[in-house]
Amino acid sequence: MRILFCSDTYPPQVNGVSVVTAISVAGLQSRGWECAVVAPRYPAASASVFTEAGTGGESVLECVASVAMPRYPDVRLAAPSYTAIARLVRRFQPHLVHSETEFMLGRLGQMAGSRAGLPLVSSYHTDFARYAAAYGIPWMRGPISRYIARFHRRSRRTYTPSHPAREDLLRNGAGDVEVWGRGVDIAAYHPRNRCAEWRERLGIGGRFTFVYVGRLAAEKRVEHIIRAYTIAQSRLPRDSTRLVIAGAGPQEPALRAAAPPGTIFLGYLDRRAELPVLYASSDAFVFGSLTETLGLVVLEAMASGLPVIAVPAGGVADHLHHDVNGLAVSATDVQAMAAAMVTIASNRAQTCRLGAGARATAEALSWERELDRLDASYREVIAGAS
């Protein structure tokens, strides 16, 4: 079987969509599929923090010319290269076309696949409609929602990683929507990766350490975490905590300016060599986003044995269970997040209990199981289109 993935993001760009797409390619190849990927071309000097199997691998990778997105140069905007995609469809002759994103390459993949008479599937990874408020254009939420609904109605099946996201799609008229992609590598992300030497190298020592991993962009609400941490610091013993922020993005200068002493910015880390050590060597994970369809970093933190302080919104609500694997906080109340940080940092026994609950949650979410399901689902779609 052959499948063509069309995605507006792929390694070396770092985000949940590129991670899941790379994992899908690697997992399908190991199950006998031939895979091709159409993605933007990234600058030759781009350093990759990806070491996921299959990100270079045996797949066919068609790179389309791209330019940096204004004010967010890490994001590449692909050129409207329909001819290149149609040519790849003719050469590769896939049995299925999967549009991983709803933008240029995802849409052109739909067009090329449809004209070739191929079955189409798609993924709903990102709640772009809810991004509108974060970027100061709330009036765009309706038009974006309608565009996304039209996009996924063209698919025989749409994959999304949470039940709230599935309900959103069904309300907007999408047909066959499958909850898929709720996986985490429980071997790579594990409490055994905790490293005292790493903590000493960062000057953390025995201090209680909160960690955030992700893009530093408006929709992630990292400023909310920083405000909460500033309040929490004032209620805890002096110099007893640290906040580590791993990631990059357009908000980084403003976040650095707002961050109190005790905040450490690390930029992007290698996903295999460094990120698992960061999670396991921290003490709790904090997350402020309201727009996740999954929140892959939340699952990675849980697999690493960290209690999670987060807003139970979108896909995060599927996995965050208050006082079982973390503490759920209000979306708008920075004081509530600060209080949760104080509670976690002040009670080591509770931290250990919630961390054990987090690990137990992650252990039920293996990628191998999810990839077996994806393999079977694709075959079902292909058979139904025959």
Quick summary:
This protein has 386 residues and is of the alpha/beta class. The protein folds into 2 domains: 2-183 and 366-385, Rossmann fold, CATH 3.40.50.2000; 191-363, 3-Layer(aba) Sandwich (Rossmann fold). The protein contains 14 helices and 15 strands.
- Structural category: alpha/beta
Identify the CATH class of the largest domain: Alpha Beta
- Spatial extent as radius of gyration: 21 Å
SSE order, one letter for each helix or strand: EHEEEEHEHEHHEHEHEHEHEHEHEEHHH
According to DSSP, the number of beta strands is 15
Strand order within the widest beta sheet: 3-2-1-6-7-8-9
Mean pLDDT: 91
> What percentage of residues falls in helices of 4 or more residues?
40-55%
Features:
single chain; alpha/beta; Rossmann fold; 7-stranded parallel β-sheet; 6-stranded parallel β-sheet; 386 residues; 15 strands; 2 domains; 18% strand
